[in-house]
Queue: 2 jobs
Job 1
Amino acid sequence: MSELAILGGKKTRSEPFPWYNTMGEEERLAVDQVMRTGILSKFHGSWNDKFLGGPEIRAFEAEWCKRFDAKHSVSVNSNTSGLQAALGAINVGWGDEVIVSPYTMCVSATAPLVWNATPVFADIEPRTYNLDPESIRRKITSKTRAIVVVHIFGCPADMDPILEIAREYKLKVIEDCAQAPGATYKGRQVGTIGDIGVFSLNWHKHIHAGEGGVCTTNDDHLAERLQLIRNHAEAVVEFMRPGTEIPLENLIGFNFRMLELQAAIARVQIKRLDPEIALRRKYARLMEETLRRYPFMTVPEVPSDREHVYYTQAFQYDAAKAGVSRARFAAALRAELAPFQCFEDEGVAIGEGYIKPLYLMPLFQKRIAYKGGFPFTGRENYDRGICPVVEKMHFGTLMHHGFIKGSLSESDFKDVLAAFAKVCDRIGELKE
Ligand SMILES: *Cc1c(COP(=O)(O)O)cnc(C)c1O
């Protein structure tokens, strides 16, 4: 085997990896059919037969319910708006606290702010990188109203103890399933375990429509509130059930509606999910087998009561054991591999850490969400050190790679494995 690429040797793989384009003939036909009708959206923000959207939206929502075992699916134009709608639907507001994860895409933590509630960060557990139920318990106060659980990287969070805490303190539970469509916990689909699940259909998720999202719930009342928040509730409530009082809290106007075109694409994409998950699991297992050979690598076992769907694959690197810094190790891996086609400017998909712990963002450090600093009181604690596990993972040990994608053939993925094995086998040569 040649010398490490970072030291002047030959790269393991120099040809860019094929990009993940899952838009096929079926999607094109589905879009064409909608285009022929000329009806790209059929939503109307008033109480009539268009309040719930057109035929593609309704068919898509029914099919989503079927695939994910949910009683109700409410499509929205992103997971971001879905989380905002979900927090509005469970009726959080000013003075309330919502427990969130610091290790996730930002909106899982900022959505409560839209309703003037404040996020409180709990720590993660190092096995799945998801919220640690014990840490959640420690963060509960008399103001806590809800928990936003994220099934990060595609691995379900430990829902039973979280639901137990929620029952004990009468909290609502929102599941952010953006990275975990089809993942299961004790045989149940994520997104149906808490009060509301939220999924993403943006272009880098397992299945997509460019942009889009879906909220799932088994609760009739919450489903109705989600539909109202999606589509100008304030103009609708008056006419919904004449003679009955509908509580108005959090029913102000948004337009979170998805297009018929997106629904048509998403209906085809649902069918692509299961083969995609199967392939990702296979590649993930191959990578685990490779990495487990090295004492400086930790690839936590996926707990046996869950099925991981691998939005990305994370592992932990022990720089002290390896005798080489994480930055240098990552640079050596990147040097062996190529970027994705069309995304050459993003570099090779090897990450050190994931997203900087969210409480370190200026929004929380300066406690300014709205003009005047509202809704923060100054009593919130967003100091460095509040979640030691996430800080250790992010700044110290966690790495992830973005090569688990259906666009890679088995031979493409073997190149990725070979690059990891080459750098790990020769790690001694990286010592400075
Ligand atoms: C992608 C993502 C979101 C946001 O999804 P959009 O559809 O882009 O708004 C939220 N949470 C997590 C965990 C995500 O990965």
Note: The mean pLDDT is 96.
Job 2
Amino acid sequence: MTGKGTICVAGDADRQTGAVNQPLHLSSTFRLTEGAYRAIAEGRGREASVYTRWGNPTVGAFEQKMARLEGGEEAVAFSSGMAAIAAVMLSHLRPGDELVTTRELYGGTYSFLEKELKRLDIRVRYADCTSPRDIASAITPQTRLLFFESLTNPLLRVLDVPAVAEAARQHGVPLAVDATFVSPVNQNPLSLGADLVVHSASKYLGGHSDLIAGVAAGTRDACREMWQRMTRHGGCMDPFQAWLLLRSLKTLHLRIQRHNQNALAVARFLEQHHRVAEVWYPGLESHPQHHLARHMLQGYGGMVTFRIDGTDRDGLAFMRRLRVATEATSLGGVETLVSMPFNTSHSYLSPEEREAIGIGPGTVRLSVGVEDVEDLLADLRQALDSL
Ligand SMILES: *Cc1c(COP(=O)(O)O)cnc(C)c1O
């Protein structure tokens, strides 16, 4: 068995030139050969280099590396995480079918369900993502897909992947998991029983807040279905994004290790600060699902959410006093980012509605970066102490 770090680093050498890195093939089209014509005739346009929306050698190298990192037979690259999620949904669901999921979803995914799937007469059933029993009881004979996130935003609830996968298996329904927050270093949903794993590669896989991309991995058959959706919807990955991702993946294991360490230290620090009312981090013993964190391979990730003992206005004042962390949405980059759900991801809810789902006033979300942890802690301390 090859370790994650070795997979991250290995295998991009170019056979033709001996270059140790995968070349960037900025070409929309490729010279047609007998083999290419045969592939086109047999619907295998992805395998032969024909046209970049169907397949590109640089994109293919990224897909192969992701398949290895997730333990899938294959992977398919997309122009964004949302393009990948749309392909996962639409390769399983037709009019009259049902999806079982949870309201605790990435905002873009939630609006895809509400605005796109419902238009197609696909019914969406919402369950409590922390209860495999509730999820199982939402499954009907019309259910064709289960879709959940490994860790939810912003309260970092942990999906019990093996238990939900078992419920899915018993009902003969595939389970797709959005593992963006955990990365393939901390968790491989496929090895825990999920059928498909999907990522916004814009986050930890890219890791430098400089690109938008997505990827999904699973069986060869599932990937063929998703690839067909991708070629028809048009959300193919740009070869340059694939090249940047291949470069980023070489340090994924190192970055995640540091994100894990820094975030745990930050969560522990926040937990004992007198101006902090609550901290959510799966690696803390106080987290209600800390026991499920055993499904994390190396750590609990870089996301930490906490509530200042105060108002949303205090939260804003806190953020504006930070000097190391940058006030920005998104996550998974090397730099620490800070934002508040009330005026970003959950601004569409009223304060009462936010409170009802556990997002009280003063809730702040940190994407803890890979800076020196002493500097991060000092920055957080000065901003909290000055409140
Ligand atoms: C960012 C994100 C997405 C959407 O990905 P894009 O690359 O922005 O399209 C989906 N799921 C999760 C959990 C995310 O954080």
Note: The CA atoms of residues 39 and 45 lie 5 Å apart.
